[in-house]
């Protein structure tokens, strides 16, 4: 009652006065009750009361007295008659209780969607010489007196000299914001979930994704020696194969020794190991020969080469196994050559990798993916909350009733934005606190720019939620659209891998999505330390602002269409 009173521009005192009066008139329970706890008949009477709260000049009522007891029905009719006589109110209503229509000034008898007669009740009774409207209705149907329809004269159009309503009415925005805040307060568990879910998502993502795989089972066959505990490494060691295996990262690779080469390879084929390492019998002798002379045969090369049989069905693990083996061998051979006073650069690949210009020497998948995860969470959490609230209002009939009372599409959009901006800020900023405080996310640029991009992504999601809920009636349709948007965003928006790895045409499509360029912008701010003067950064800013305008336009058009 307060909400619809405020929308109509009433003062709080007037709303309270009218509420108590209508509650007494319609025999409603305590006004502190929530509508959801009332019976169906009581809910209909509350709906009736909201139509009467602001004393409108025109009332259109659909069977307002259905299901009511005779005394209450008589009380309502007396009040309606008083409105028409003393308040100059026009009332148009439908009813199946034909005799109660006897009190109307004009009655229209309708059948199959056609008004067969429209005239004052007394004139209708007199014309058919009957005592009840029910008999008159029967006579109209039997005689099919189409000619009895009263033709109203067509009035010339009048020019409305009144000024148009302002595009923004403060009391309406106040009522809309109060209603939205009240919804959030009454759905407190949902609001808490919207704050906790992004934090949990970020926490789980950073804990599970991006770390180097460990405890990988590797089959090993060492034909040179059965010794697994080597003496300290020194020049001219006789069991270099043992030392090499000792240099492999024991946390990353769990070595399982086999005596037979075929058995080790079978363990990879059977899925018991990710790779098999095979070392030849005369490995040390032939390896030293390769270091000390250029006159080596193919047999020497073959005997001093460690063979690796790897399972490439899991690409990432295969890449990490290669990395672990290369790193272990490089450290092993470097220490060995230093002990033999041989320049280890002489046997290294003629490539030199300097310190990275941007990023870390040991890049992390978490650092790469986190910008996309941050923006995606901000976008979809804001979109889900906004679309959900609007869809519920539409389902409950609040949205249409609000529009009927003259609330503009602009006022509804503005109230949702103003009300949910605080919620959106908490939704977007709390994951950043977790990332920087707990997981030490790389930050080489401006924290203000990071916050700005994240909040802008949340605002874009809010606008997307408004556009979806404005154009789809049912909550399940809104849910389908949001889920349907989520997966293309995750796949195409360069969150888990760069778009350079995509098909050319998909790359163009991905670049047009709201979060693709924005993700690259945020990644450049975090890891490269770039600002808005760099094209990569400001292009992402332009893209996400264009999508905000598009979503707002779609939402505005959807609300205008529904209003019509």
Please describe what this structure looks like:
The chain is α/β, with parallel strands linked by helices and 564 residues long. The chain is built from 21 helices and eight strands. It has four domains: 1-96, 3-Layer(aba) Sandwich (Rossmann fold); 105-150, no CATH class; 173-206 and 364-563, no CATH class; 216-347, D-Maltodextrin-Binding Protein, domain 2. Helices cover 58% and strands 7% of the residues. Helix 9 links the parallel strand 5 (216-222) and strand 6 (253-257). The chain is elongated, with a radius of gyration of 39 Å. The model is unreliable at 145-155 and 158-162 (pLDDT under 50).
List the keywords:
564 residues, alpha/beta, Rossmann fold, 4 domains, four-stranded mixed sheet, two-stranded parallel ribbon, 58% helix, 7% strand
Write a compact overview of the structure shown:
The protein has helices at residues 2-7, 12-25, 40-52, 70-86, 121-128, 133-143, 170-186, 188-208, 240-247, 261-269, 283-292, 298-303, 315-339, 365-395, 398-404, 409-437, 447-471, 475-492, 504-512, 516-528, 535-563; strands at residues 58-62, 90-94, 107-111, 114-119, 216-222, 253-257, 275-279, 307-310.
């Amino acid at each position: 009652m307060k909400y619809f009173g405020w929308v109509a521009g009433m003062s709080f005192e007037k709303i309270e006065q009218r509420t108590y009066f209508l509650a007494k008139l319609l025999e409603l329970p305590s006004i502190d009750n929530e509508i959801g706890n009332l019976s169906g008949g009581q809910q209909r009477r509350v709906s009736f009361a909201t139509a009467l709260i602001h004393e409108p000049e025109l009332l259109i009522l659909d069977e307002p007295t259905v299901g009511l007891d005779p005394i209450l029905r008589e009380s309502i009719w007396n009040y309606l008659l008083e409105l028409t006589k003393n308040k100059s109110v026009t009332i148009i209503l439908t009813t199946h209780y034909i005799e109660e229509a006897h009190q109307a000034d004009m009655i229209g008898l309708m059948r199959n969607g056609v008004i067969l007669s429209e005239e004052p009740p007394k004139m209708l009774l007199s014309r058919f010489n009957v005592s009840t409207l029910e008999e008159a209705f029967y006579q109209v149907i039997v005689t099919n007196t189409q000619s009895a329809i009263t033709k109203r004269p067509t009035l010339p159009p009048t020019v409305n000299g009144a000024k148009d309503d302002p595009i923004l009415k403060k009391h309406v925005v106040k009522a809309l914001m109060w209603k939205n805040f009240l919804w959030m307060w009454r759905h407190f568990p949902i609001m808490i979930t919207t704050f906790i879910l992004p934090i949990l998502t970020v926490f789980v993502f950073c804990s599970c994704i991006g770390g180097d795989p460990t405890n990988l089972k590797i089959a090993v066959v060492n034909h040179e020696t059965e010794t697994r505990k080597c003496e300290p490494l020194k020049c001219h060691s006789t069991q270099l194969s043992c030392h090499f295996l000792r240099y492999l990262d024991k946390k990353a690779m769990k070595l399982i020794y086999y005596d037979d080469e075929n058995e080790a390879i079978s363990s990879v084929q059977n899925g018991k190991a990710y790779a098999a390492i095979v070392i030849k019998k005369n490995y040390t002798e032939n390896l030293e020969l390769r270091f000390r002379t250029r006159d080596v045969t193919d047999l020497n090369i073959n005997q001093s080469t460690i063979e690796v049989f790897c399972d490439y069905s899991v690409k990432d693990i295969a890449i990490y196994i290669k990395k672990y083996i290369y790193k272990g061998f490089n450290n092993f051979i470097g220490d060995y050559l230093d002990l033999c006073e041989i320049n280890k650069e002489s046997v290294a690949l003629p490539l030199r990798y300097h310190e990275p210009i941007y990023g870390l020497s040991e890049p992390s998948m978490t650092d790469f993916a986190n910008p996309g995860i941050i923006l995606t969470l901000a976008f979809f959490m804001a979109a889900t909350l906004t679309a959900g609230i609007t869809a519920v209002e539409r389902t409950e009939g609040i949205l249409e009733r609000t529009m009927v009372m003259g609330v503009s599409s602009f006022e509804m959009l503005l109230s949702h934005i103003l009300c949910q901006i605080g919620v959106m800020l908490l939704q977007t900023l709390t994951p950043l606190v977790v990332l920087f405080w707990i997981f030490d996310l790389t930050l080489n640029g401006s924290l203000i720019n990071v916050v700005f991009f994240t909040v802008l992504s949340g605002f874009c999601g809010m606008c997307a939620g408004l556009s979806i809920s404005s154009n789809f009636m049912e909550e399940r349709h809104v849910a389908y659209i949001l889920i349907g948007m989520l997966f293309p965003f995750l796949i195409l928006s360069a969150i888990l891998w760069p778009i350079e790895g995509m098909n050319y045409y998909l790359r163009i499509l991905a670049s047009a999505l709201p979060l693709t360029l924005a993700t690259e912008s945020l990644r450049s701010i975090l890891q490269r330390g770039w600002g808005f003067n760099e094209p990569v950064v400001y292009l992402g800013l332009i893209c996400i602002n264009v999508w905000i305008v598009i979503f707002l336009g779609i939402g505005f058009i959807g609300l205008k269409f529904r209003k019509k």
